[in-house]
Amino acid sequence: MNPPTWLFGSRKTLTFALLLAFLLALGIRLYDLTDLPLDFNPTRQLFSMLKARGMYYALSPHLPAWQREIAIQQWQESPVIEPPLLEALTALSYLPFGENLAIPRLYSILFWLLGGIFLYRLAQDLTDPNGAFFSLLFYLFLPFGIYASRSFQPDPLMVMLTLAAVWSMWQWRTRPGWKWALTAGILNGLAILIKNVAVFPLLGAALGIVLERGIFSSLKDRQTWLVAALSIFPAGAYTLYGIGSGFLGGQFSNRFFPHLWKTAAFYLQWKGQLEGIFGFSLILLALASLTLLPRRPFALLLGLWGGYTLYGFTFAYHITTHDYYHLPLIPIAALSLAPLAQVLTRLARTRQNLFWLRSATALGLSLVVALQLWTVRVELIRNDYRADAAYQYSIGEALGHTSQPSLSLAQDYGDRLEYWGWQPNTPWQDASLRALREAGGQTVDSAAYLQQALPGKRFFIITHLARLEAEPILKETLYQNYPIYAQGKGYVIFDLAVPLAP
User: How far apart are the C-alpha atoms of 302 and 287, rounded to whole Å?
Assistant: First the structure.
């Protein structure tokens, strides 16, 4: 029997198992696809949705003029972070099919599954098909990864390109040549351009390769410099252009909080994020599994872990508050579990009754995958957001979809109202925004902010009534000084243009 295929017995069985895994992974991600994309970090998804819609309406002169005006305004007033390539692709896809939010979700699903192909091939190169298959199952069926890979944001594309880039760097290390150096450099550059945080795992992987090979021999190799130049150039040129043009200048504020490193809360909250996504014991198991690797793959994976760690310290606030910042860790953890699976399957080959042991292993894996699929299905069917579109539109309709400056205390910083209500608004600086500024060392005076924010605004739209209760100064000011313009189930709108008589 061929040792690498102990779990499957033959290459045909392995191929069948891989196809089945990808089909199941696709099927669960297509489940409940037509629901509104509010099940995973809706604020981040709405950010991309507003951009894509604005681009689409700019390309579609036949659509209602008032909606075109609002959609384009919302797009052009949105801050720019990474290049809106996914949003542009989505807008172009809307042209033949209409504005259908299933389209960007399908793109994200496709990117994540393609990433699984690169992950499997890399894990197979680092270990064997048994280890690679375990690694792939973890990547495809971790519930958090399933939710994330259905979301409209650039992260699934970034993960796919990062995996492709790391696999290419590994090919370049094991089969040196200009072809692989060029491929690795281009893929590195694309991944970092899509979302610049990809630089952390890719830099870690590259350093692991360089250090394992030898610093001096790597620095003397012209291929090393080609990979570095191609990796840096796209994102570097975009960043310099963005800063020079002014549209990226504000994206570097409230991003870096090194003073948090000195607090115990930072490490506890980071651990809490890992516990909620993976289970902290699994993270420890993945790290321990690295010790089973030979020197060369050990250096690569250790570099990936080092890159993730540097990433967490660089974005100290966000790594403890934004769960999707941990998406790059999913493939790293998956790859790290492969050597453990490899060793266990090799040990199993030495036992008697291989048929029963193989059957029990296959049954156990099937049950784990089935449990993960059931968990995700229950969560997806439990939440139905479809009614929210009509609800938000009714609020915008009550206001006449006015473009006059308005404030809001609403879900997702008013972006739901922007998107489905067609109602431009400026979000009130609530507790979460104040926490971000306070983490940056800024002093926040709610009363002073209130005095600055209200003048010149037409309406104050409240759809998050629970948060209004947590803002006593704001609540008292509004109810005592301004009339109610309109109200309904779950919302109240104050008319700021006609204050009540003292």
Answer: 9
- DSSP 8-state assignment for residue 406: E
**Residue 354 scores a pLDDT above 70:** no
Q: What are phi and psi of 427, to 5 degrees?
A: -70, 140
Number of residues in the chain: 502
Sequence-distant (6+) residues with CB within 8 A of 168 are 180, 183, 184, 187
459-462 and 484-488: which strand pairing? unpaired
Alpha-carbon gap, residue 185 to 470, rounded angstroms: 50
Over range 228-249, report the average pLDDT: 88
Give phi and psi for 101, each to the nearest 5: -70, -10
Across 245-271, average pLDDT: 83
Q: What is the average pLDDT across 306-319?
A: 96
Q: Which residues make beta-bridge pairs with 491?
A: 488
One-letter amino acid of 29: R
Residues 6+ apart with CB under 8 A from 91: 52, 53, 55, 56, 59
Average pLDDT over the chain, rounded to an integer: 91
- Whole-angstrom Cα distance, residue 366 to residue 425? 49
Q: How far apart are CA 410 and CA 158, in angstroms?
A: 30
d(CA 58, CA 68): 7
Angle formed by the axes of helices 354-382 and 129-141, nearest 10°: 20
- The three state secondary structure string of 189-239 is HHHHHHCHHHHHHHHHHHHHHHHHHCHHHHHCCHHHHHHHHHHHHHHHHHH
CA dihedral 283→288→291→292, nearest 10 degrees, is -90
d(CA 218, CA 308): 23
Strands 491-495 and 484-488: antiparallel
Confidence of residue 352 (pLDDT cuts 50, 70, 90): low
CA atoms of 240 and 248, how far apart (whole Å):
9
- Residue 354 DSSP label: H
Residue 409: which residues within 8 A CB-CB, separation 6 or more? Answer: 427, 428, 430, 460, 461, 462, 463, 464, 467, 468, 471, 474
The β-bridge partners of 488 are: 491
327 residue type, one letter: L
pLDDT tens across 156-197, in order? 999 999 999 999 999 999 999 999 999 999 999 999 999 999
**Is 385 in a helix, a strand, or coil?**
coil
pTM of model > 0.85: yes
The residues, ordered by sequence, that sit 6+ positions from 184 with a Cβ below 8 Å of its Cβ are 165, 168, 169, 171, 172, 227
